[in-house]
Amino acid sequence: MTAALLLLGAALVTWPGNRALLRARRVASVRPRWRTPWSVPAASVPLLCGVAAAAGGALLSTPLVAGLAGVVASLAARAGERRRAGNREEARVLALAEALGALAAELRSGRSLEGATAAAVTACADADSGRALARAVRAPTAPAPADAGLLGDALERVSAATLLSQRSGCSLAAVVGAVEDDLRARRRYRLDLRAATAGSRASTVLLAGLPLLALAMGGGVGADPWRVLTTTGTGQVLLVAGVGLEVAGLAWSDRLVSRAVR
Predict the structure, then answer these.
(1) Closest alpha carbon to 17 in 150, 147, 143
(2) Which terminus of the chain, N or C, has less C-beta within 10 A?
(3) DSSP string for residues in 5-68
(4) Residues whose CB falls within 8 Å of the CB of residue 101, separated by 6 or more in sequence, listed in order
């Protein structure tokens, strides 16, 4: 019964919110349509990892360890999925910047807006970003997608520039080039910030792993700290508190870096 309640708690912790579901739908729209027999939706990976870790913990140790293992594994999988989503967004930003550069070059060469847009969509490495750029140019009054982040902001500026060009006849190439330069500058800033904080993040992970080293050293000298932590009441309280502090510290440091990079 205890293990079932702990697994239920892990499932509630890893249940994806609206933002995660929207991100998963956008990512699925640019993925290949074929699937391997063992592929699973990205939103289900944290839950599956938590269940697998909890099952392994239940077989090897106590129900409390099984529940903690499930929660930690699901949170780790969720953090990994966020990191992969960030990498995919960086790739989409770079693809959109390349497409905007191609669009500005085509417009400066005297090509029509429709022809320049088609060439830019062809030059875009990400099909979804190319289609979004085509919509921003061909239908500038269409609303921007919700929760689109840096890409949505860039496309809104392209739409506004297209409307202004249609109404006043001003040059669209200059504004598109400025949006491209801004995207590249923001991407360089993000990369520089990640490089600057890489040492601090590595130190955080190293400090988080020291308790495991202490457990191994204690077991090596015959103290058997794992049995104390898993079989006694005081040890179980300390184990839960320690795991909670570890998870909270790692999540706090990751959130600080994520907010700074945005």
Answers:
(1) 147
(2) N
(3) HHHHHHHHHT---HHHHHHHHHHHHHS-S---TT---GGGHHHHHHHHHHHHHHHHS-HHHHHH
(4) 177, 180
Residues near 21 by Cβ (< 8 Å), separated by ≥ 6? Answer: 43
Under a CB-based contact definition with an 8 Å cutoff, are residues 136 and 126 in contact? no
Q: How far apart, in whole angstroms, are the C-alpha atoms of residue 139 and residue 256?
A: 38
Q: How many CA atoms lie within 13 A of 243 on its CB side?
A: 19
Name the token pair of 99.
């497409």
* R_g of the chain, CA atoms, integer Å: 25
Q: What is the pLDDT of residue 30?
A: 39
The structure tokens listed for 9 are 């708690």
Question: 3-state SS of 27-42?
Answer: HHHHCCCCCCCCCCCH
What DSSP character marks residue 197?
T
> What confidence score (pLDDT) does residue 3 get?
45
pTM for this one?
0.68
pLDDT in tens, 143-199: 555 446 778 888 888 888 888 888 887 788 888 888 889 889 988 888 888 888 888
Within 10 Å of residue 131's Cβ, how many Cβ atoms?
Answer: 14
Which residue reads 């019964």 in tokens? Answer: 1
Q: How many Å apart are CA 136 and CA 144, to the nearest integer?
A: 8
Closest CA to 114 of 100, 103, 126: 103
pLDDT of residue 260: 62
